[in-house]
Amino acid sequence: MNFPDDTIAAVSTPPGEGGIGIIRLSGKDAIAVIDRLFSSPLDKRLKDMRSHTIIYGFIKDPASLDRIDEVLASVMRAPLTYTREDVVEVNCHGGRVPLRRILSLVLNEGVRLAEPGEFTKRAFLNGRIDLLQAEAVIDVIRAMTDQSERIALQQLEGMLSAEIMAIKDSVTELCALIEAYIDFPEEEVEMPEKAGIDASVRSIRNRLSALSRSFDEGRLFREGAAMAIVGKPNVGKSSLLNVLIKKDRAIVTDLPGTTRDIIEESLNIDGLPVRVMDTAGIREAHNLAEAEGVKRSLAAIEGADIVLAVFDASRPLDQADRQVIKRVRHKKAIMVINKCDMIHQDFDQADTELNTHTAVKISALKNEGTDILKKKIVATLSSKKIPGHDVIPDLLITNIRHKQLVDTATFSLERARETLERGEPLEVTALSLRECLDSLGEIIGAVTTEDILNRIFSEFCIGK
Ligand SMILES: Nc1nc2c(ncn2[C@@H]2O[C@H](COP(=O)(O)OP(=O)(O)O)[C@@H](O)[C@H]2O)c(=O)[nH]1
Ligand SMILES: [Mg+2]
Predict the structure, then answer these.
(1) Which residues contact ligand 1 via a Cβ below 6 A?
(2) What residues are neighbours of ligand 2 (ion), with CB under 5 Å?
(3) pLDDT tens-digit profile of 216-242?
(4) I need a labelling partner for 101 at 20 to 30 A (CA). Which of 137, 361, 400, 412 fits?
(5) Distance of alpha carbon 105 from the chain centroid
(6) Cross-strand partners of 368
(7) How far is residue 457's CA from residue 454's CA, in Å, rounded to a whole number?
(8) What pLDDT is attached to residue 221?
(9) What is the pTM (predicted TM-score) of this model?
C-alpha cells in the first residue's frame, strides 16, 4: 500500500445552505496553498501561525485579487491532526457559491479533490486509528439513535479494537509456544502441554463466540431493526403505525384493503432504531393489485427482525386471523390485540393459538397500551442491558465484516484444536493458528488489501 503524499481538499459540510461551510485540506501543501489565497487585515500568514489556532481574513482570487469570502482559517500541523498530516480548515459562509469558488481556487493550486472517506482513510494509513475505528466514524455520522451513536463511539475510541488485540495476543502466545517447540526440538524447549493448550483455546474461543453472538443485537443498532406490522385487512395496522410514529402517515379507512404498498417509517424506541413497515392486509386477494400487496406483506414478514401481528378484538377471530398466526409462527412476533376499546363478546382473548407468542392488548384509536407494546418490542429484540440508558453496553459487533472475520477466526482456532487432538504434527496446528491471527488482523486492518479499503471507504461521504 502506498502512503499518500499529495494534498487533498473537499467541502466537509453537507450540501445546501448553512450558517457556515467548511473546506478541508490535508497534506504537505495545505498551509502553503491557503496562504497563497488568503489575506488577513493584519498581514498575518498561516505559515507563521502556531498549530491549532484560527486566523481571520479573506479568501481572494490570486489572479483578479477579488475577495471571494470572509473566512476563518484553522491551522493544524502534523502529527496531531485528524489525518496526521498538516490540515487547514477554511470556515466560510455556508452557501453553494462561496464553497464552490473557494474549492475551485484550491484545486487550481494543484490540490486534488478528495475521494469519499479519504481523510479518514489517511488517518488509518498514517496509523492514527485502526480499521475498526475508521469504520466507526461513518457509524457515528449515520447513527439513528443516541444509543447507536454511543456504541459507534465506543468502537471509535478503540474498545472493540482492544478486545480484538487482546484475543490476538493470546493466540500469538499460543502460536509462539508451539512454534518454539517446532523450531528447537533438540533444545530444552519443553513439549507444550496438551491440557494447557486446550484450556487456552477454549477460553479464546469463548471470547470470540461472545463477540460473534453480539452481532445479532449489535447489527440492529447500526442498521435499525426491521419491524413489520401484519394482519388481515381492517384490524388497525395503519392506525397502529400512525400512533407509533405519532403522525398521520398511513391512510386509515374502514374500507378493507386500502394499504397496498408497504409504508416504511423510522422510529426510536428506547434508543433502539426501528424501521416500521405497514403492510397490506393478508387475505384471499380480490384483484391483481391486492394480490401483489399480499405477496409483499408475506415477503415483509420474512425480512423482518420482529413482526407485530394485529388482531381486531371487536370481531371474533376468524380463518383469516388464523392464517396470519400461522404465517408468523416461525418469527420473533408479538400478537397485538387491537380495538380493545370495543371488545366483542365472542372474541377470545385467551385463545391458545393467539397466545403462542406474547400478546399485548391495545387500542390504536385511543392510543392505549402502546407504551407496553413498545417495551415488549425492545425486550423481544434486545437483551435487557442495552436499552437502559445508563448502562454502558457490553462490547457489541455491529458490522457484518467484523462478524464474518470473527467467525473465520473461530473456525481456524477450532481446527487448530482438532489437529492437536488427533495428534497431527504441530506444524499443522501452528498453521491453523496463523490463519486465525490473519483473520483477527484483518478486522483491525493489520492485514488488508487495497480492495477491502476501497470498499470500506467508498461508503463514506466526501469531506470525511
Ligand atoms: N374502535 C377502534 N377502531 C379502530 C382502532 N384502530 C383502528 N380502528 C378503525 O379500524 C378501521 C381500520 O383501520 P386501519 O388502520 O385502516 O386498518 P388496516 O386495514 O389494518 O390498516 C378504521 O376505521 C380505524 O379507525 C381501535 O383501536 N379501536
Ligand atoms: Mg392499512
Answers:
(1) 231, 233-239, 252-254, 258-259, 281, 338-339, 341-342, 363-365
(2) 237-238, 259
(3) 999 999 999 999 999 999 999 999 999
(4) 137
(5) 36
(6) 363
(7) 5
(8) 93
(9) 0.84
